[in-house]
Amino acid sequence: MGKLITTSKPLILKSKLLCFSLLYLFTTLFLALYTTLSQSKCFFRSSPLDPIQNSLFSYPSSYGEHKYAVSTSRSTCSSPVYFSDYLVVVKEIDNWHKNFSAYSIPLRYMQKNADSFGGNLSTLVRFSYFDHQNDNKEVPCGFLKKFPISDSDQISMEKCDNVVVVSAIFNDHDKIRQPKGLGSKTLENVCFFMFVDDVTLMGLEHHGLISLNSIDYKIGVWTLVKVAKVDLYENPAMNGIIPKYLVHRLFPNSKFSIWVDAKLQLVVDPLLLVHSLVISENVDMAISKHPYYVHTMEEAMATARWKKWCDVNALKVQMETYCEHGLLPWSPSKKPYVSDVPDSALILRKHGLRSNLFSCLMFNELDAFNPRDQLPFAFVRDHMKPNLKLNMFEVEVFEQLTVEYRHNLKRIDGNNSTNKKVSPSRRTKRAHQDLLYVNSSCCGRCQKYLSTMWGEEESNH
């Protein structure tokens, strides 16, 4: 009979070389997995125990607030944003709030009764306000005609004295989506205001979210402000420009603001965003770089090509006006500005002289031409004095801070019936030949811009 052999250790563990090999393998796999996961996000919390509130509002299934999300293809991040601990951020922003008067230099605004909200200012008049060396000089900044909202809404907006998150929906163009990831003290320090028109309100009533007989409208964290069409712009997009660029005038006591296009859902706490992207960077404004374009002319050409603004002749006039007055393509000499074209769907501001002046000058250009705000962006930024301190963060970061959705495919008409949205019949207006050729020379006033831009592009290939 054979002997039964016993051992205190498995045979596989008697080989030291094998043990070390397995340890090395598992360690390498762990580090590789950790590195992959770390690069897949563009923001990190310093503490996993930040207080996060649960969902604050439940929509009826018919509303479909999470339909038509736009997928994000990027899986890595080259420049992550680090967040401080939530409670530390709350304390720092509260201290900033208390001491704000020590940092703030007021900007004086032009007051008069004009025939239009923006004043129909000429080119030379608008540009004369870019150099703001005299603090006593009044700057045109909209509101030259009454903004058509109720007195109660105006009082409510003036009470918002810390951080305000602002959005707008006109012509029932988007859904109202609730922000995610709010900390337990955020609603004590942050106001959420959504500007809407009658068409949007009818859509919300159709889904049972509001009653038009109410005095105040509120959906989740959002306070709705009804804007009457009377005395404003025929184009709903231009009406949306008012809260987007004149937020410091609508909320005169707020210290910081975040503009969020209604196509976006904010998924990071606003206090963390303001602290990380504005306060920690010591800037006046934070905005994402455009995912594709660096030069203003690239955006102008895309605007015409994709019919984002159908009056191509007016676009040509606008760009040649800027070229004539010194618009240049982006180059390393413009640093610390890293691009001439932003993605303006998310804008964070510290309200102060520089950011308020930039917003006023931007609004005046949009009022003069069209609501495509990426076109005057670099011209205003590069020509205004004092210079704007700007944080243009990576597109990867923007995609982690928000979820983007497509615009409404349906809308509610006046009879509360649901119809497919049909774009009005718009015919593209071609550019006049004399804008392309001056004395038989190509490209007119933008010839220098285009030759420099194309020369840079050719040298990069």
Automatic annotation (TrEMBL):
Q: Which domain of life is it from?
A: Eukaryota
Q: List, for all copies, the residue spans of the domain called TOD1/MUCI70 glycosyltransferase-like.
A: 111-407
- What is this protein called in UniProt? TOD1/MUCI70 glycosyltransferase-like domain-containing protein
Query: What organism does the record attribute this protein to?
Result: Lupinus albus (White lupine)
